[in-house]
Amino acid sequence: MSLEAPEPELDVGETPDGDLDYDELADLLGEHVLDREEHVNAEGFVIRPDSVETVLATLKEEAGFDHLSCLTAQQYGDRYESIYHLKKYDDPTQELSVVVPTASEEPVSGSAAGVFDTAIWHEREAYDLVGIEYEDNPDLRRILLPETWQGHPLSNDYNQDQPQIVPLREHANPMEKRTQVPDRSDTMFINIGPHHPATHGVLHLETVLDGEQVVDVDPDIGYLHRCEEQMCEQGTYRHQIMPYPDRWDYISAGMLNEWSYARAAEDLADIDVPEYAQVIRTMAAEMSRIAAHMLAIGTFALDIYGDFTAIFMYSITDREKLQNLLEDLSGQRLMFNYFRLGGVAWDLPEPREQYFQKVRDFCEYMPGRLEEYHNLLTSNELFQMRVLDTGILPPEEARSYGCTGPVARGSGIDYDLRRDDPYGYYDELEWDVITDDGCDNFARALVRLKEMEQSARIIEQCVDVLEDWPEDEREIQSNVPRTLKPDHDKEIYRAVEAAKGELGIYIRSDGTDRPGRFKIRSPAFCNLQSLEVMAEGEYIPDMVAALGSLDIVLGEVDR
Amino acid sequence: MSKEQSEPELHDTLEQAQSKQDARMGGGVDDRFNSKLRQAFGSTPFILTKFDKFMNWVRGNSMFMLLFGIACCSIEMMHTYATKHDLDRFGAGVPRASPRQADVIIVPGTIVSKFGPRLKRVYDQMPEPKFVVSMGSCTISGGPFQEGYNVVKGAEEIIPCDIHVPGCPPRPEALIYGVLKLQEGIRAGESAPVTVKPYELEQFGDLDDDALVRKLASEIDEDDLVMRYNWADSP
Amino acid sequence: MTLAETISSALGLEGAVGQFVGGFIGAAIVGTFILANAAVAGPWAKRKITAAFTDRIAVDKLGPLGIGIIIPDAVRLISKELIVPEGVDRPAWDIAPLLIASSAILGFAVIPMGQVGPVEFQLADPEVGLAFVFAVASIASVGLVMAGYASNNKYSFLGGLRAVAQNLAYEIPLILTGISVVIFAGTLQLSGIVDAQQQTLVDLGPVGIPAWFAIVNPFAFILFLAANMAEVGRNPFDIPEAPTEIVAGFQTEYSSVYFVLIYLGEFVHIFLGGAIIATIFLGGPSGPGPASIGLLWFLVKIWGVFLLTQWARSALPRVRIDQLIEIGWKGMLVLSFANLVLTAIIVGVIA
Question: What number is the ipTM of this complex?
Fold first, then answer.
């Protein structure tokens, strides 16, 4: 091997300094590009509905856009539009939007399912909520709403007051037609959930079993579809939206979620955030991350150890400590509502020294505590026996399903938006991105445990920075107008690294003080989709473990 | 305590309790705990009232909880069961995964249209006497999501609730207070009246034949259970 | 004097009538005693022990340390509505809980539980005592299968199948390990096995280490302990119940009295497992002090085993069904055969 670093091979459209040359990309696609739009985060190429698959395949193979981050569907007065937000796992700052307009009368578009597996669910959601039909999608049915629902709630002419009828079918096998199992005489269909101790909420797994082995599994979601996007579209930018992100990923990850909205809206409305507020945000967000990972580890242990395990209780004990810290900071235990556009709600609690001491105490306490988790979990041979080499998620599949966060990093994908697409104060601090090549349940748990250590490191550094901050420069909020009205038709897609992975927000402003379209790219939604890959062929307990290691939150999956 | 002395007093309390119930449910006596024995006796003899008191004490002091999580509130619910708050101190912390073995269901989160029938089913699967703690704003009224197209405006539209714990989410202390109040109520012989809820499970064939039913007739069998949501009538 | 004899002589009855009445009342006393132990263990001790492992307090409002919770818990469970789900296989569904509870209690008929004063707590002492205990204890697995199959519920069904596979895989190593003790003791009679453990193995001045088979053959003891965990279905082998996988396994559909029976049966089963371990490995009721407090030592030993199961519950992961079968057939069966052969050779050489 030569000592010199090899010249990184450049994808088509990539400039040597890591930027994108959109002209070159447009040339690559040639006549497919009908028009070019300017979004805040990236350029959008307008293409014809029937060339979706060709365009996305070209971009994936030749230009290196291997990450279909999100699909936003929306209805304008005169047309429907699907926007495919593309990124690269190697460098998520290189973004491209592919805009596919379809006619109002007949909203039929081509499907990206042949290029990205993750598109199947995204297109199902778009069909369900907005009403665009995707030809060639292998499985186009409703995903969040019951299959007997009338109308598409995010389309313009939806009447919210019309009655609906929801059936309760228990024993009918809804997978009869879909399952690929050839000989069904020896298999058994079983509903796991929506009320089941292992589903971490109200997830419904339609499972076909052969003895104890899972032959086919289909997650049925939507039992907690609380219309989060509609709620956000009804709220004003300045104050009314911020409480809702807390409730997407409700496992104390509120700070991280709030940051996703704050980042998107601040970039949309050109709001600067004072450095001091960024440090506070970083510290609060990492506290949230530890709390969220704690619960992930605790419930994972619950799935494997049974419901009397001490590990779960220990993790809750540690979460209590964090929640106390977060409560001191924000005034709430779970739904913080602490971020504001342009900063945070208020400064650190007084007396500051005491608060710093409490945070430091916690950071010192963490490593010893983590060691205990390692003793109880990762170095327990029975535990290893259970989780090593089960629930395998190969990196190629993980990319295709759009997995991010600890799930992707447990499959060896080195992808962390905190480092790759820096925001906040992260690029000033010293910390490592944890990855593991195990690709199994064990690797994902291990990544979470190690990430907590890194988060504690970040918090410690933040405290150091905050302690030395000059007293007269503690600006917690920049000057933001009372009513925010971003320019008409300004579009943005921005993501942050939340507890479960890449949490992205798409906002289109329509010139008023409320968003015209608000779309949430939920990491758990994409991660959950890969359950099929992990679970099929495994035993029921392994499927339960795989689900636990995915660490989904139904509030975020269903939104 | 002799029978003569205690009787008028007992009748008084009974009447009070009944009038309170009547006021709440508008007619009809709540006979959830009524037994054949009591019906045979006609009135309520001394021995049965003592027995009643004992049973109320029993039910008010020990309860198995259904292991049931929906949304945000379930996180605080877990904290309530766990180390710091330890709901089990009050005899109410044994989680059972099967509804057949549970006494109390804490409904911790937003009920959406798709989950409504399932909630009803889980509730129906629990054996009497059963109690419902509705936890958080969403189960009270739909909370912050009340205006959503898919959100049921409170758990009480589907199942009867014994006690509401407000908050978004309620703190563990609040939930403990709620459970204690529930226990107090049970010990005093109160329980939620079982009334017909706005949204019930019905067989599809029994629904009125309107445009929506006709439209769905090809998709749903006559004897499938369904829940019909009339959003326009919701609070 | 045995318990039955004491009762019949106290009542002044003799002959067959005396034997019958004495035996009957004696059985009632022993059964009640065991059930009382299970009643303390189920609603109270289990919660307190788990709470101690997880830094909690658990029940503490009624009576000292909350032990009063036993009364409301028991009464409430029994007084609940008994739901008979649609489509259950009726006689089988009703018999299963009875079978689970009674089989475990039946085992105590032959266990020598030691003395209280002059009275010897052992109902019967047949020559095939150990075989009888194993035989009745394994009837419970029939109950589990019946419960699982008759419930008309897929989770119950999976639980029943798991129970059967598990019990088959662990009954054999359990009994084979038990036989190695029989070879040492030279008898199947439980009192004989206890007597064989009475001598002192090593004399360390004031303290004599008794010749308990757990000390003579610790390998067999550990093997038996592990197999027993699987037999009573506790972590790491609690897979027939496995709440996070198959809801509550075979007992998913049971409520009220039937649930109480299954719940009690489980605890009695743990105690029976403890009793077998105490009898064949830990010298039965023997311990320091006079023989008249033997029952106390016996209780200490069976509660010790109970504590161990609860500890395992808080600390150990549950293995997967295929791994469990593998451990059973490929690991423990082989080890227990090795143990058996080795014991036979040692005993043959020494004797």
Answer: 0.87
